[in-house]
Amino acid sequence: MIPFNDLKPSHTLLAEEINAAVLRSVSSGWYILGPEVEAFEAELAAYHGVKHAIGVANGTDAIELALRAGGIGSGDEVITVSHTAVPTVCAIDETGATPVLVDIDSKNYTMDPSAARAAITPHTRAIVPVHLYGHPAAMKDLIDICDTLGLLLVEDCAQAHGAKVDGKPVGTFGHLAAFSFYPTKNLGAYGDGGAILTNDDQLYARIKRLRNYGQTKRYANLERGVNSRLDEIQAAILRVKLKYLDEHIGIRRQLAALYNTNLSGPVLPEGSSDVMHAYHLYVMRHPQRDQIMAALAEHDIGTLIHYPIAVHQQEAYTDLGYGVGSLPVTEKVVKEILSLPLYVGLTVDQVSTISTAVNEFLGRQ
Hints:
With 365 residues, the chain is an alpha/beta fold. The protein has helices at residues 8-28, 35-48, 59-69, 86-95, 113-118, 139-149, 201-210, 232-243, 245-262, 289-298, 328-333, 348-364; strands at 52-56, 77-81, 98-102, 124-127, 152-156, 164-165, 168-169, 176-180, 194-198, 215-217, 220-221, 275-276, 282-285, 337-340. The chain has 12 helices and 14 strands. A 7-stranded mixed β-sheet has the order 1-9-8-5-4-2-3, with helices on both faces. The chain has a 3-stranded antiparallel β-sheet with strand order 7-6-12, with no helix packed on it. A two-stranded antiparallel ribbon has the order 10-11. The model has no long low-confidence stretch (mean pLDDT 97).
């Protein structure tokens, strides 16, 4: 059996350091917004070369609080993509704003800047591009749009820890950036967690209030906030894992390169010379996706689809009014994409086995 994902090998590699970090945190007697969170925030900001990082409870909260800090609320429109995890759109909903969903580029599956530009109305206040699968969105074009029209730019970096454009990490292009530390991410906690990055001192101060009931200090609430705090134990674990993030991305990139060499027939992940793909997921594409998935299952090879149903096709979001054919690239892509196993601990031999199974199936067709 080759599982789609296995988190145990990466834990085993770092177990001694992680266990020590957890013990240090537990023994300290300080469990919420203490020295571990402060240290992780400083280290995360330094890794990205930005002024501020703010730990929050999860990636969905990170997007919502980033938008709220930027003044987004009822009556506003926020442009994002339908080809993403539902939490991206859920976070926009939670601010009271209206999500406006646009189509994607057919090669890297991230926001099509021309589609974003065409969707702008007098009510548009922000754009939330998603760096999907570890591939950065077209930030140069999106920055130009936002700068020209005075729109807030919030990067959804939940799947792209460590990805870069022209050597610059994602999360450093927008006014704000949201990260998730869900356990399967390139930088994953052992539970939920998230963070927001910014270079803006005022946005930083407001997010710190908003994550903790709007407090400026104990029992002094300047505005209405929420409870969204990264806990000390998760911060201690993330401090260890952050040190190895680049090394682990290197492993992912090596395995992805092996897939690219071995596979013949599917459309493979495509980058460009200015992009460093972080390979949170390895997503191939083929019209016979479902048959390939079934054939791999016969070989005890796990696969998943990210994502089989676009947000605008979800029952919960039919009220947004996107009919069949409204986002044609997205609707075609979701029928053809397939995520193959890719994680720290997956072996070269296993990648070869998976590649052979895919090629053998296609060779019989």
